Amino acid sequence: MSTKYPKALREEIVAKVRAGEKATDLATQYGINYKTIYYWLHASSGEDVISVLKFNKLKRENEELKWLIGQLTLDLKRGEKD
């Protein structure tokens, strides 16, 4: 890469992604290409990158399912069976 980013900044962004923030949001916030952030993740942890990405995807899917279950529960209590 032709642009150099300070190590502290790279570590901060990688830590935020691992904590659950979206890489695309951080890329916009810091003015960095999201692919660069994924490269940093891959370089710093290898196989763990897949785990972090899968975890975040599963977390979003889980929240969607909880919402759907809530809606279905309300419908059943109201007597609206679809």
Description:
It is a single chain. This protein has 82 residues and is an all-alpha fold. It has one domain. The chain has 4 helices and no strands. The longest helix is centred in the C-terminal third of the chain and has 31 residues, at 48-78.
Summarize the structure.
77% of the residues lie in helices and 0% in strands.
Structural class: mainly alpha
Helix content: over 70%
Shape: elongated
- Global mean pLDDT: 85
H and E string: HHHH
As a whole number of angstroms, the C-alpha radius of gyration is 18 Å
Q: Tell me about the biggest sheet?
A: none
The low-confidence runs, each spanning 5 or more residues with pLDDT under 50, are: none
Strand content: under 5%
* Count of the domains: 1
Q: Could you tell me the number of beta strands?
A: 0
Measured between the Cα atoms of the first and last residue, the distance is 55 Å
List keywords for this structure.
single chain, 82 residues, mainly alpha, elongated
Topology, element by element:
Layout: H1 7-18, H2 23-30, H3 34-45, H4 48-78
